[in-house]
Amino acid sequence: MFPKATIARFPMYFRVLTEYNHQNIALVSSEEMAQKLGITSSQIRKDLSYFGSLGIRGAGYDVAYLLAKIKEVLGMDKSRRLAIIGAGKLGLALAGYSGLKQHGLEVAALFDTDDAKWGTNNGPLPVFPLTELASQKEKLGMEIAVLTVPASAAQPVANLAVKAGFKALWNFAPVRLVVPKDVIVQYEDLVVGILTLSHHLARKFG
Amino acid sequence: MFPKATIARFPMYFRVLTEYNHQNIALVSSEEMAQKLGITSSQIRKDLSYFGSLGIRGAGYDVAYLLAKIKEVLGMDKSRRLAIIGAGKLGLALAGYSGLKQHGLEVAALFDTDDAKWGTNNGPLPVFPLTELASQKEKLGMEIAVLTVPASAAQPVANLAVKAGFKALWNFAPVRLVVPKDVIVQYEDLVVGILTLSHHLARKFG
DNA sequence: TAGATTGTTAATCGATTAACAATC
DNA sequence: TAGATTGTTAATCGATTAACAATC
After folding, report:
1. Global pTM value
2. Is the C-beta atom of A13 closer than 7 angstroms to strand D?
3. I need a labelling partner for B63 at 20 to 30 A (CA). Which of A45, A142, A187, B125 fits?
4. Which of B52, B73, B94 is the last residue in one of the domains?
5. How far is CA A93 from CA A122, B69, B89, B162, B183, in A?
6. The domain containing residue B88 runs over which residues?
7. Which of residues 167-186 of B touch A (CB under 8 A)?
Protein backbone atom coordinates (compact mmCIF):
# COMPACT_ATOMS: atom_id res chain seq x y z
CA MET A 1 0.00 0.00 0.00
CA PHE A 2 2.39 2.69 1.21
CA PRO A 3 6.15 2.29 0.75
CA LYS A 4 7.40 0.21 3.64
CA ALA A 5 10.48 2.38 3.93
CA THR A 6 8.12 5.30 4.56
CA ILE A 7 6.25 3.50 7.33
CA ALA A 8 9.58 2.46 8.88
CA ARG A 9 10.53 6.14 9.26
CA PHE A 10 7.29 7.15 10.96
CA PRO A 11 8.34 6.05 14.46
CA MET A 12 11.32 8.39 14.09
CA TYR A 13 9.03 11.24 13.04
CA PHE A 14 6.78 10.47 15.98
CA ARG A 15 9.67 10.82 18.42
CA VAL A 16 11.08 14.03 17.00
CA LEU A 17 7.63 15.62 16.93
CA THR A 18 6.95 14.50 20.49
CA GLU A 19 10.11 16.33 21.47
CA TYR A 20 9.06 19.54 19.70
CA ASN A 21 5.69 19.21 21.34
CA HIS A 22 7.26 19.00 24.81
CA GLN A 23 9.24 22.13 24.00
CA ASN A 24 6.02 23.88 23.05
CA ILE A 25 7.19 24.42 19.49
CA ALA A 26 4.10 24.82 17.35
CA LEU A 27 5.52 24.87 13.83
CA VAL A 28 8.45 23.03 12.33
CA SER A 29 9.86 22.88 8.81
CA SER A 30 10.87 19.71 6.98
CA GLU A 31 14.40 21.12 6.85
CA GLU A 32 14.66 21.45 10.65
CA MET A 33 13.46 17.89 11.16
CA ALA A 34 15.78 16.64 8.43
CA GLN A 35 18.81 18.18 10.13
CA LYS A 36 17.89 16.59 13.41
CA LEU A 37 17.32 13.17 11.87
CA GLY A 38 20.18 13.13 9.41
CA ILE A 39 17.99 12.62 6.33
CA THR A 40 16.90 14.93 3.48
CA SER A 41 13.97 17.29 3.76
CA SER A 42 12.70 15.97 0.42
CA GLN A 43 12.30 12.56 1.94
CA ILE A 44 10.27 13.89 4.84
CA ARG A 45 7.95 15.88 2.56
CA LYS A 46 7.52 12.92 0.24
CA ASP A 47 6.83 10.51 3.11
CA LEU A 48 4.21 12.82 4.59
CA SER A 49 2.61 13.56 1.22
CA TYR A 50 1.37 9.95 0.94
CA PHE A 51 -1.07 10.75 3.72
CA GLY A 52 -2.41 14.05 2.42
CA SER A 53 -1.42 17.67 2.34
CA LEU A 54 -0.32 17.91 5.95
CA GLY A 55 1.76 21.08 5.98
CA ILE A 56 1.32 24.80 5.47
CA ARG A 57 3.18 26.24 2.49
CA GLY A 58 5.58 28.95 3.50
CA ALA A 59 5.28 28.07 7.18
CA GLY A 60 6.01 24.39 7.83
CA TYR A 61 4.10 21.70 9.70
CA ASP A 62 1.85 22.20 12.70
CA VAL A 63 3.50 19.97 15.30
CA ALA A 64 0.36 18.93 17.18
CA TYR A 65 -1.59 18.26 14.00
CA LEU A 66 1.20 16.27 12.37
CA LEU A 67 1.74 14.29 15.55
CA ALA A 68 -1.93 13.34 15.64
CA LYS A 69 -1.79 12.31 12.00
CA ILE A 70 1.29 10.17 12.51
CA LYS A 71 -0.28 8.46 15.50
CA GLU A 72 -3.27 7.70 13.34
CA VAL A 73 -1.16 6.23 10.55
CA LEU A 74 0.77 4.05 12.99
CA GLY A 75 -2.39 2.90 14.71
CA MET A 76 -1.32 4.61 17.91
CA ASP A 77 -4.58 6.47 18.37
CA LYS A 78 -5.82 3.31 20.04
CA SER A 79 -3.67 1.48 22.62
CA ARG A 80 -2.66 -1.91 21.17
CA ARG A 81 -2.30 -4.83 23.53
CA LEU A 82 0.36 -7.49 23.15
CA ALA A 83 0.72 -11.10 24.23
CA ILE A 84 4.29 -12.22 24.72
CA ILE A 85 4.71 -15.93 24.13
CA GLY A 86 7.87 -17.28 25.71
CA ALA A 87 8.73 -15.95 29.18
CA GLY A 88 12.48 -16.36 28.76
CA LYS A 89 15.03 -13.59 29.08
CA LEU A 90 14.05 -11.84 25.87
CA GLY A 91 10.32 -12.11 26.58
CA LEU A 92 10.72 -10.68 30.08
CA ALA A 93 12.98 -7.90 28.82
CA LEU A 94 10.41 -6.88 26.21
CA ALA A 95 7.66 -7.06 28.85
CA GLY A 96 9.51 -4.43 30.85
CA TYR A 97 10.72 -2.34 27.93
CA SER A 98 9.51 1.22 28.40
CA GLY A 99 9.82 2.00 24.67
CA LEU A 100 6.70 -0.03 23.99
CA LYS A 101 4.49 1.94 26.37
CA GLN A 102 5.90 5.21 25.05
CA HIS A 103 4.54 4.23 21.65
CA GLY A 104 1.09 3.24 22.81
CA LEU A 105 1.83 -0.47 23.03
CA GLU A 106 0.84 -2.37 26.15
CA VAL A 107 2.02 -5.84 27.11
CA ALA A 108 -1.03 -7.43 28.72
CA ALA A 109 0.30 -10.90 29.56
CA LEU A 110 3.01 -13.48 28.95
CA PHE A 111 2.57 -17.15 28.10
CA ASP A 112 4.83 -20.14 28.59
CA THR A 113 4.62 -23.93 28.64
CA ASP A 114 6.90 -24.14 31.67
CA ASP A 115 4.74 -24.34 34.80
CA ALA A 116 7.61 -23.00 36.92
CA LYS A 117 7.08 -19.65 35.21
CA TRP A 118 3.32 -19.40 35.68
CA GLY A 119 1.92 -16.78 38.02
CA THR A 120 2.97 -13.28 38.89
CA ASN A 121 6.41 -13.86 40.37
CA ASN A 122 8.42 -12.69 37.40
CA GLY A 123 7.39 -9.08 37.55
CA PRO A 124 4.25 -6.99 37.40
CA LEU A 125 2.76 -9.09 34.59
CA PRO A 126 1.10 -12.50 34.85
CA VAL A 127 2.54 -15.52 33.03
CA PHE A 128 -0.19 -17.86 31.85
CA PRO A 129 0.00 -21.44 30.55
CA LEU A 130 0.15 -21.43 26.79
CA THR A 131 -3.10 -23.38 26.73
CA GLU A 132 -4.92 -20.26 27.94
CA LEU A 133 -3.81 -18.16 24.97
CA ALA A 134 -7.18 -18.08 23.21
CA SER A 135 -9.28 -17.42 26.31
CA GLN A 136 -6.98 -14.70 27.65
CA LYS A 137 -6.83 -13.07 24.22
CA GLU A 138 -10.58 -12.50 24.39
CA LYS A 139 -10.55 -11.49 28.05
CA LEU A 140 -7.65 -9.03 27.79
CA GLY A 141 -8.27 -7.83 24.23
CA MET A 142 -4.81 -8.61 22.90
CA GLU A 143 -4.20 -8.15 19.16
CA ILE A 144 -0.50 -8.82 18.57
CA ALA A 145 1.36 -12.00 19.51
CA VAL A 146 5.07 -11.60 20.21
CA LEU A 147 7.05 -14.81 19.66
CA THR A 148 10.10 -15.03 21.91
CA VAL A 149 10.40 -18.80 21.85
CA PRO A 150 13.23 -21.06 20.63
CA ALA A 151 13.44 -21.56 16.86
CA SER A 152 12.15 -25.12 17.12
CA ALA A 153 8.96 -23.96 18.87
CA ALA A 154 8.21 -20.99 16.63
CA GLN A 155 6.01 -22.68 14.00
CA PRO A 156 3.84 -24.67 16.44
CA VAL A 157 3.43 -21.57 18.60
CA ALA A 158 2.51 -19.53 15.52
CA ASN A 159 -0.14 -22.13 14.69
CA LEU A 160 -1.61 -21.75 18.18
CA ALA A 161 -1.58 -17.96 17.90
CA VAL A 162 -3.36 -18.13 14.55
CA LYS A 163 -5.92 -20.54 15.96
CA ALA A 164 -6.45 -18.16 18.89
CA GLY A 165 -7.35 -15.44 16.37
CA PHE A 166 -4.22 -13.28 16.29
CA LYS A 167 -3.86 -11.49 12.94
CA ALA A 168 -0.43 -10.01 13.64
CA LEU A 169 2.71 -11.81 14.81
CA TRP A 170 6.00 -10.22 15.86
CA ASN A 171 8.51 -13.01 15.49
CA PHE A 172 11.94 -12.96 17.16
CA ALA A 173 12.76 -16.56 16.24
CA PRO A 174 14.97 -16.81 13.14
CA VAL A 175 12.44 -18.97 11.33
CA ARG A 176 10.21 -18.30 8.34
CA LEU A 177 6.63 -18.90 9.50
CA VAL A 178 3.85 -20.41 7.42
CA VAL A 179 0.58 -18.64 8.22
CA PRO A 180 -2.75 -17.95 6.48
CA LYS A 181 -2.53 -14.93 4.21
CA ASP A 182 -4.75 -12.73 6.35
CA VAL A 183 -2.14 -12.96 9.11
CA ILE A 184 0.86 -10.59 8.97
CA VAL A 185 4.23 -11.56 10.34
CA GLN A 186 6.91 -9.05 11.20
CA TYR A 187 10.33 -10.64 11.50
CA GLU A 188 12.84 -9.24 13.96
CA ASP A 189 16.33 -10.60 13.51
CA LEU A 190 18.58 -9.19 16.20
CA VAL A 191 21.78 -10.65 14.80
CA VAL A 192 21.54 -8.82 11.44
CA GLY A 193 22.57 -5.51 12.97
CA ILE A 194 25.52 -6.79 14.92
CA LEU A 195 26.77 -9.07 12.14
CA THR A 196 26.70 -6.04 9.84
CA LEU A 197 29.08 -4.38 12.29
CA SER A 198 31.18 -7.52 12.46
CA HIS A 199 31.35 -7.56 8.65
CA HIS A 200 32.59 -3.97 8.57
CA LEU A 201 35.20 -4.68 11.26
CA ALA A 202 36.41 -7.73 9.32
CA ARG A 203 36.73 -5.64 6.14
CA LYS A 204 38.62 -2.87 7.86
CA PHE A 205 40.76 -4.63 10.43
CA GLY A 206 40.52 -8.34 9.58
CA MET B 1 31.02 -1.43 -0.68
CA PHE B 2 28.63 -4.38 -1.05
CA PRO B 3 24.87 -3.82 -1.17
CA LYS B 4 23.67 -3.57 2.40
CA ALA B 5 20.59 -5.60 1.57
CA THR B 6 22.94 -8.40 0.55
CA ILE B 7 24.88 -8.31 3.81
CA ALA B 8 21.59 -8.26 5.73
CA ARG B 9 20.62 -11.60 4.14
CA PHE B 10 23.88 -13.34 4.98
CA PRO B 11 22.92 -14.26 8.56
CA MET B 12 19.91 -16.07 7.08
CA TYR B 13 22.17 -17.92 4.65
CA PHE B 14 24.49 -18.80 7.52
CA ARG B 15 21.64 -20.39 9.44
CA VAL B 16 20.17 -22.39 6.59
CA LEU B 17 23.62 -23.69 5.64
CA THR B 18 24.37 -24.61 9.25
CA GLU B 19 21.22 -26.69 9.17
CA TYR B 20 22.24 -28.48 5.96
CA ASN B 21 25.63 -29.06 7.49
CA HIS B 22 24.13 -30.72 10.55
CA GLN B 23 22.11 -32.94 8.25
CA ASN B 24 25.32 -33.93 6.46
CA ILE B 25 24.07 -32.52 3.19
CA ALA B 26 27.14 -31.71 1.11
CA LEU B 27 25.63 -29.92 -1.89
CA VAL B 28 22.68 -27.58 -2.13
CA SER B 29 21.20 -25.60 -5.02
CA SER B 30 20.17 -21.96 -4.90
CA GLU B 31 16.64 -23.11 -5.68
CA GLU B 32 16.47 -25.39 -2.63
CA MET B 33 17.68 -22.61 -0.35
CA ALA B 34 15.32 -20.14 -1.97
CA GLN B 35 12.30 -22.35 -1.28
CA LYS B 36 13.30 -22.72 2.34
CA LEU B 37 13.87 -18.99 2.80
CA GLY B 38 10.95 -17.67 0.80
CA ILE B 39 13.06 -15.61 -1.60
CA THR B 40 14.10 -16.07 -5.26
CA SER B 41 17.04 -18.23 -6.31
CA SER B 42 18.23 -15.35 -8.49
CA GLN B 43 18.66 -13.25 -5.43
CA ILE B 44 20.76 -15.86 -3.68
CA ARG B 45 23.02 -16.36 -6.70
CA LYS B 46 23.42 -12.62 -7.14
CA ASP B 47 24.19 -12.06 -3.45
CA LEU B 48 26.83 -14.78 -3.45
CA SER B 49 28.35 -13.65 -6.74
CA TYR B 50 29.59 -10.43 -5.12
CA PHE B 51 32.10 -12.55 -3.22
CA GLY B 52 33.40 -14.67 -6.07
CA SER B 53 32.36 -17.71 -8.02
CA LEU B 54 31.35 -19.82 -5.05
CA GLY B 55 29.25 -22.55 -6.65
CA ILE B 56 29.67 -25.45 -9.06
CA ARG B 57 27.75 -25.13 -12.30
CA GLY B 58 25.36 -28.01 -12.81
CA ALA B 59 25.74 -29.15 -9.21
CA GLY B 60 25.02 -26.36 -6.73
CA TYR B 61 26.99 -25.05 -3.78
CA ASP B 62 29.30 -27.03 -1.52
CA VAL B 63 27.71 -26.52 1.90
CA ALA B 64 30.91 -26.59 3.98
CA TYR B 65 32.79 -24.33 1.60
CA LEU B 66 29.97 -21.81 1.31
CA LEU B 67 29.50 -21.79 5.07
CA ALA B 68 33.17 -21.00 5.59
CA LYS B 69 32.99 -18.22 3.02
CA ILE B 70 29.91 -16.69 4.62
CA LYS B 71 31.53 -16.79 8.05
CA GLU B 72 34.50 -15.00 6.57
CA VAL B 73 32.34 -12.29 4.99
CA LEU B 74 30.46 -11.74 8.25
CA GLY B 75 33.66 -11.64 10.26
CA MET B 76 32.63 -14.78 12.11
CA ASP B 77 35.90 -16.59 11.47
CA LYS B 78 37.19 -14.77 14.53
CA SER B 79 35.08 -14.58 17.71
CA ARG B 80 34.05 -10.96 18.28
CA ARG B 81 33.75 -9.71 21.83
CA LEU B 82 31.10 -7.27 22.94
CA ALA B 83 30.78 -4.77 25.78
CA ILE B 84 27.21 -4.10 26.83
CA ILE B 85 26.81 -0.63 28.28
CA GLY B 86 23.67 -0.31 30.38
CA ALA B 87 22.87 -3.28 32.63
CA GLY B 88 19.13 -2.73 32.56
CA LYS B 89 16.57 -5.28 31.42
CA LEU B 90 17.48 -5.06 27.77
CA GLY B 91 21.22 -5.20 28.44
CA LEU B 92 20.88 -8.25 30.67
CA ALA B 93 18.58 -9.97 28.18
CA LEU B 94 21.10 -9.44 25.39
CA ALA B 95 23.89 -10.67 27.67
CA GLY B 96 22.05 -13.95 28.04
CA TYR B 97 20.80 -14.20 24.47
CA SER B 98 21.99 -17.49 22.97
CA GLY B 99 21.60 -16.20 19.40
CA LEU B 100 24.74 -14.10 19.83
CA LYS B 101 26.99 -17.00 20.80
CA GLN B 102 25.54 -19.10 17.97
CA HIS B 103 26.83 -16.47 15.58
CA GLY B 104 30.31 -16.22 17.04
CA LEU B 105 29.60 -13.18 19.18
CA GLU B 106 30.65 -13.20 22.80
CA VAL B 107 29.51 -10.76 25.47
CA ALA B 108 32.58 -10.24 27.63
CA ALA B 109 31.28 -7.75 30.19
CA LEU B 110 28.58 -5.24 31.08
CA PHE B 111 29.00 -1.67 32.28
CA ASP B 112 26.78 0.61 34.30
CA THR B 113 27.00 3.80 36.31
CA ASP B 114 24.76 2.38 39.04
CA ASP B 115 26.98 0.90 41.79
CA ALA B 116 24.14 -1.35 42.93
CA LYS B 117 24.63 -3.30 39.71
CA TRP B 118 28.39 -3.74 39.92
CA GLY B 119 29.81 -7.18 40.51
CA THR B 120 28.74 -10.64 39.42
CA ASN B 121 25.33 -10.94 41.03
CA ASN B 122 23.28 -10.41 37.92
CA GLY B 123 24.32 -13.57 36.15
CA PRO B 124 27.46 -15.21 34.87
CA LEU B 125 28.90 -11.95 33.56
CA PRO B 126 30.57 -9.18 35.54
CA VAL B 127 29.12 -5.66 35.61
CA PHE B 128 31.84 -3.02 35.80
CA PRO B 129 31.66 0.70 36.59
CA LEU B 130 31.42 2.66 33.36
CA THR B 131 34.69 4.38 34.31
CA GLU B 132 36.50 1.09 33.66
CA LEU B 133 35.35 0.88 30.06
CA ALA B 134 38.68 1.74 28.46
CA SER B 135 40.84 -0.43 30.73
CA GLN B 136 38.54 -3.47 30.45
CA LYS B 137 38.34 -3.05 26.68
CA GLU B 138 42.08 -3.61 26.47
CA LYS B 139 42.11 -6.39 29.05
CA LEU B 140 39.19 -8.35 27.57
CA GLY B 141 39.76 -7.51 23.91
CA MET B 142 36.27 -6.15 23.24
CA GLU B 143 35.59 -4.58 19.83
CA ILE B 144 31.89 -3.72 19.74
CA ALA B 145 30.05 -1.53 22.25
CA VAL B 146 26.35 -2.23 22.70
CA LEU B 147 24.38 0.76 23.94
CA THR B 148 21.38 -0.24 26.02
CA VAL B 149 21.08 2.99 27.95
CA PRO B 150 18.23 5.54 28.15
CA ALA B 151 17.98 7.95 25.20
CA SER B 152 19.30 10.85 27.28
CA ALA B 153 22.50 8.95 28.11
CA ALA B 154 23.19 7.62 24.62
CA GLN B 155 25.35 10.45 23.25
CA PRO B 156 27.58 10.86 26.34
CA VAL B 157 28.01 7.09 26.54
CA ALA B 158 28.87 6.98 22.83
CA ASN B 159 31.52 9.64 23.46
CA LEU B 160 33.04 7.48 26.20
CA ALA B 161 33.00 4.41 23.97
CA VAL B 162 34.73 6.34 21.18
CA LYS B 163 37.33 7.64 23.63
CA ALA B 164 37.90 4.08 24.84
CA GLY B 165 38.71 3.11 21.25
CA PHE B 166 35.58 1.30 20.09
CA LYS B 167 35.17 1.54 16.30
CA ALA B 168 31.73 -0.12 16.20
CA LEU B 169 28.61 0.78 18.16
CA TRP B 170 25.34 -1.13 18.27
CA ASN B 171 22.84 1.44 19.47
CA PHE B 172 19.44 0.49 20.92
CA ALA B 173 18.62 4.03 22.04
CA PRO B 174 16.38 5.87 19.57
CA VAL B 175 18.88 8.67 19.12
CA ARG B 176 21.07 9.69 16.19
CA LEU B 177 24.66 9.60 17.45
CA VAL B 178 27.41 12.00 16.42
CA VAL B 179 30.69 10.10 16.13
CA PRO B 180 33.99 10.44 14.23
CA LYS B 181 33.71 9.05 10.72
CA ASP B 182 35.95 6.05 11.35
CA VAL B 183 33.38 4.79 13.85
CA ILE B 184 30.39 2.83 12.54
CA VAL B 185 27.03 2.93 14.25
CA GLN B 186 24.36 0.32 13.69
CA TYR B 187 20.95 1.50 14.85
CA GLU B 188 18.48 -0.99 16.25
CA ASP B 189 14.99 0.38 16.64
CA LEU B 190 12.79 -2.24 18.22
CA VAL B 191 9.57 -0.27 17.85
CA VAL B 192 9.73 -0.06 14.04
CA GLY B 193 8.70 -3.68 13.61
CA ILE B 194 5.80 -3.65 16.00
CA LEU B 195 4.52 -0.25 14.84
CA THR B 196 4.53 -1.61 11.29
CA LEU B 197 2.18 -4.33 12.54
CA SER B 198 0.10 -1.74 14.37
CA HIS B 199 -0.13 0.28 11.15
CA HIS B 200 -1.40 -2.75 9.22
CA LEU B 201 -3.96 -3.55 11.93
CA ALA B 202 -5.18 0.05 11.89
CA ARG B 203 -5.58 -0.05 8.08
CA LYS B 204 -7.46 -3.33 8.13
CA PHE B 205 -9.55 -3.19 11.25
CA GLY B 206 -9.32 0.42 12.47
C1' DT C 1 26.88 -36.11 -24.55
C1' DA C 2 22.50 -34.67 -21.89
C1' DG C 3 20.84 -32.58 -17.90
C1' DA C 4 21.38 -29.39 -14.41
C1' DT C 5 22.54 -25.25 -12.26
C1' DT C 6 25.60 -21.47 -11.88
C1' DG C 7 27.11 -16.62 -12.87
C1' DT C 8 25.87 -12.60 -15.24
C1' DT C 9 23.34 -9.45 -18.16
C1' DA C 10 19.53 -6.59 -19.05
C1' DA C 11 14.95 -5.32 -17.68
C1' DT C 12 12.10 -4.09 -14.06
C1' DC C 13 10.77 -2.37 -9.89
C1' DG C 14 10.93 0.61 -5.90
C1' DA C 15 12.98 4.24 -3.19
C1' DT C 16 15.58 8.62 -2.90
C1' DT C 17 16.76 13.15 -4.31
C1' DA C 18 16.88 17.62 -6.75
C1' DA C 19 14.39 21.05 -8.50
C1' DC C 20 10.72 24.13 -8.83
C1' DA C 21 5.86 25.66 -9.47
C1' DA C 22 2.20 26.38 -6.20
C1' DT C 23 0.82 28.91 -2.47
C1' DC C 24 0.81 30.36 2.40
C1' DT D 1 3.97 42.02 -2.31
C1' DA D 2 8.30 39.43 -0.85
C1' DG D 3 10.01 35.58 1.44
C1' DA D 4 9.53 31.04 2.77
C1' DT D 5 8.37 26.36 2.48
C1' DT D 6 5.28 22.95 0.88
C1' DG D 7 3.73 19.30 -2.47
C1' DT D 8 4.90 17.12 -6.64
C1' DT D 9 7.36 15.98 -10.82
C1' DA D 10 11.13 14.04 -13.12
C1' DA D 11 15.71 12.27 -12.73
C1' DT D 12 18.62 9.34 -10.35
C1' DC D 13 20.02 5.70 -7.71
C1' DG D 14 19.95 1.06 -5.87
C1' DA D 15 17.93 -3.46 -5.43
C1' DT D 16 15.31 -7.36 -7.42
C1' DT D 17 14.08 -10.49 -10.96
C1' DA D 18 13.89 -13.03 -15.37
C1' DA D 19 16.32 -15.04 -18.72
C1' DC D 20 19.96 -17.46 -20.68
C1' DA D 21 24.82 -18.41 -22.12
C1' DA D 22 28.53 -20.70 -19.77
C1' DT D 23 29.97 -24.80 -17.95
C1' DC D 24 30.08 -28.57 -14.55
Report:
1. 0.95
2. no
3. A187
4. B73
5. 11, 34, 5, 27, 28
6. 80-192
7. 167-170, 174, 176, 184, 186
